[in-house]
Amino acid sequence: MPVHSSILFHKEDIRFRLNQAEKLKAALVKISRKEGFKIKGINYVFCSDAYLKKINKEYLNHNYFTDIITFDNSEEKGILEADIFISIERVKENALLFKTSFPSELKRVMIHGLLHLCGYGDKTIPQQKEMRKKEDSYLSL
């Protein structure tokens, strides 16, 4: 059994292989601890644009593409449980747009979802700046 069995990686309707999965899990666990949380269970689901757009429309009533949707299933304070859906196509496009590597952009998006679970928002400009600062600081883990 993996050391970090509380974080699981899945894929839906795409061919995708996540590199350095155990290192990513360790980094995510470390981030959650630094933020004062324990991970009970997080499912990262890597999928296509079409799959994520369907979820966006069905559950959030948004009819547009996005790179990530985080469903917080936590029931206890300080204990994280969630399903995080990430469009691999969108992450690839964003990596090109932001002139970064795909692995770096994927890690940023994964951290972004985790930070949402830790209480960080991104609706306002100040929230976006704080979120980006946290993402940048954790990217080195």
State the CATH superfamily name: Metalloproteases ("zincins"), catalytic domain
Tell me the quaternary state. Answer: single chain
Measured by DSSP, the beta-strand proportion falls in 15-25%
Major sheet: size, sense and barrel closure?
Answer: 4 strands, mixed
The side-by-side strand order for the widest beta sheet comes to: 1-2-4-3
The overall number of domains is 1
What does the overall shape look like?
Answer: globular
Name of the level-1 CATH class: Alpha Beta
User: Helicity level, as a percent range?
Assistant: 40-55%
CATH architecture descriptor text = 3-Layer(aba) Sandwich
Radius of gyration: 14 Å
Tally the beta strands. Answer: 4
Structural class: alpha/beta
Task: Report the span from N to C terminus.
Answer: 23 Å
Question: How would you summarize the topology of this molecule?
Answer:
Elements: E1 7-11, H1 21-34, E2 38-47, H2 49-60, E3 68-72, E4 79-87, H3 88-97, H4 102-117, H5 125-138
Parallel strand pairs: 1-2, 2-4
Antiparallel strand pairs: 3-4
Helix pairs in contact: 1-4, 3-4, 4-5
